[in-house]
Design goal:
Structural class: alpha/beta
Largest sheet: 3 strands, parallel
Helix content: 25-40%
Distance between the termini: 22 Å
Strand content: 15-25%
CATH architecture: 3-Layer(aba) Sandwich
Strand order of the largest sheet: 1-2-3
Length: about 150
């Protein structure tokens, strides 16, 4: 599972934290300053049988696309090392620069590249729509990501 929502997937992490059959990765705002605050720190690696099967990649408010994309590349490399046979992507679009409650600065055109990068994993992929709060742009951003994925998978 590769969560690209601005907010850490604390529920998902909790469900899989002690399991070794699902590798979870989350790129999100730094929980030292961003909701949900209490989970999503880089040192949370899983527990028991799940130790090493959880990867949090928190980024500071104001992170731009270059750094975000490099982090996505690192996340996809970790997914490959795990040997994933499928990918679930909670598709949060609150990473958009115009999102009123988030702090990354991705532009609408950047989502084409996000989709292409996700497709580069070469895995059967399911997207779950997590939304975004820049209502006027969320549709465009979703379509751009999915079109990028389709181009990258071709």
């Amino acid at each position: 599972m590769l969560d690209v929502d601005y907010h850490h997937g604390n529920g998902t992490q909790t469900i899989f934290y002690e399991r070794a059959d699902v590798f979870t990765v989350s790129i999100h705002g730094n929980p030292a300053t961003e909701y949900p605050f209490f989970l999503g720190h880089a040192d949370e690696l899983g527990a028991g049988a799940g130790e090493g099967f959880n990867l949090n990649l928190p980024l500071p408010r104001g992170t731009g696309f270059g750094t975000w994309q490099a982090t996505l590349t690192a996340a996809l490399q970790a997914v490959q090392r795990f040997g994933a046979t499928a990918l679930v992507v909670p598709m949060g679009l609150d990473t958009f620069e115009g999102d009123p409650i988030s702090g990354f600065t991705l532009k609408s055109a950047d989502y084409f590249s996000v989709g292409e990068s996700l497709a580069s994993a070469g895995l059967p992929t399911v997207f779950t729509f997590e939304g975004g709060y820049a209502v006027d742009a969320v549709g465009t951003n979703a379509v751009n990501l999915l079109e990028g994925f389709q181009r990258g998978a071709a």
